[in-house]
Automatic annotation (TrEMBL):
InterPro entries according to UniProt: AAA+_ATPase, ABC_SmlMolc_Importer, ABC_transporter-like_ATP-bd, ABC_transporter-like_CS, P-loop_NTPase
Name assigned to this protein: Polyamine-transporting ATPase
One Pfam match: ABC_tran
Domain ABC transporter positions: 6-243
Organism expressing this protein natively: Marinomonas posidonica (strain CECT 7376 / NCIMB 14433 / IVIA-Po-181)
Length: 264
């Protein structure tokens, strides 16, 4: 098989004395859609931040295309957070042009002349793809939660990333709207040949969207020192092939994990 796009080798992360992740070993190939579940605080977002390049490994290695991941974000890795992260003083269209601008002229984000016209055209096409062509001139405060997330997704994808990191992007949305967002993200994943890592608290969402589902949990526990050991990937499932029993078993385990972590 060809080289993995992302590879973790005995990867570990700690903040001060707190061990967050330990012994994470995995390989992810281009085009996979990995969903990450696990108890709150077990290090899922930290793992995404390490791929993004804003957090560094404390031990082991994290490789992108066989090389140590750069310790800063790059256009090959885009991210969408749960909390809306758009510029409030810019229109929808300006937000997406600015995202493109920061990629090209990182200090100011401003583009001029032909470059700006091209960016405007590309941004309009991108916004049409995410279903916002009717809202180009609106400001973020005039958008619904789902529309804001569509905008954040457009901002991430306009930079043509190979990897899209989604940190609970639909966590704040109504269940009805989530279904539309699922269709959108699956369409974009295929259309742009993305490799996706998505954190979710909703196991059903993880099963439905991913080609592969990871459960993060601690293998070792010390009741006297809850932060002495870190979490790792304890299940790595090809979710397309999983049955209802696997789902029910996992659901039970995650509920137990969540209760244990809340007591700790
Ligand atoms: N910059 C930081 N400095 C110190 N500790 C941090 C820092 N960032 C995260 N942590 C701690 O690392 C642990 C893992 O956090 P992280 O956000 O990765 O968990 P998570 O699994 O994504 O949780 P959730 O599902 O609630 O979002 C938490 O205990 C958190 O408090």
């Amino acid at each position: 098989m060809n080289q993995p796009l992302i590879e973790a080798r005995q990867l570990g992360k700690q903040y001060g004395q707190d061990i967050i992740l330990e012994g994470v070993n995995t390989q992810v190939h281009e085009g996979e859609f990995v969903t990450l579940v696990g108890a709150s605080g077990c290090g899922k977002s930290t793992f995404l931040k390490m791929i993004l390049g804003i957090e560094q490994a404390s031990s082991g290695e994290l490789l992108l295309n066989g090389d140590t991941i750069p310790n800063e974000p790059g256009p090959d890795r885009g991210i969408v957070f749960q909390q809306y992260s758009v510029f409030p003083h810019m229109t929808v269209l300006e937000n997406v042009i600015a995202a493109k601008g920061f990629q090209k002229a990182s200090l100011t984000g401003y583009l001029f002349g032909k470059e700006r016209r091209l960016a405007q055209q590309e941004a309009t096409e991108m916004l049409t793809q995410v279903g916002l062509s009717h809202a180009l001139k609106r400001y973020p405060h005039e958008l619904s939660g789902g529309m804001k997330q569509r905008l954040a997704i457009a901002q991430a994808i306009i930079c043509k990333p190979r990897i899209l990191l989604l940190d609970e992007p639909f966590g704040a949305l109504d269940p009805g709207i989530r279904g539309d967002m699922h269709t959108l993200i699956l369409d974009l994943w295929k259309a742009h040949n993305l490799t996706i890592f998505m954190v979710t608290h909703d196991l059903k969402e993880g099963f439905h969207l991913g080609t592969r589902l990871w459960v993060f949990d601690k293998i070792r526990h010390d009741p006297q020192a809850p932060n002495a050991y870190g979490a790792s990937i304890t299940y790595d499932l090809p979710v397309g092939e999983s049955d209802t029993r696997t789902y029910d078993d996992l659901h039970q385990q995650l509920t137990h994990q969540q209760q244990t972590s809340e007591k700790a």
